[in-house]
């Protein structure tokens, strides 16, 4: 979906990896909410600057 939405391949991979990192922290089936994913990406960007 990220590529279809216009993200480049690096941004799409970063988005997918961030979502996966959130999911593997949980037991069982997990869903990542959009606001949770957004917060994680913002945290990642703040750490990099």
TrEMBL record:
Q: Matching InterPro entries, A to Z?
A: Ribokinase-like
- What is the name listed in the Swiss-Prot or TrEMBL entry for this protein? Uncharacterized protein
Species name: uncultured Chloroflexia bacterium
């Amino acid at each position: 979906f990220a590529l279809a939405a216009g993200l480049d391949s690096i941004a799409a991979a970063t988005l997918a990896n961030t979502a996966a990192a959130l999911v593997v922290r949980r037991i069982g089936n997990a869903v990542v909410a959009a606001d949770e994913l957004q917060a994680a990406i913002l945290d990642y960007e703040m750490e990099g600057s």
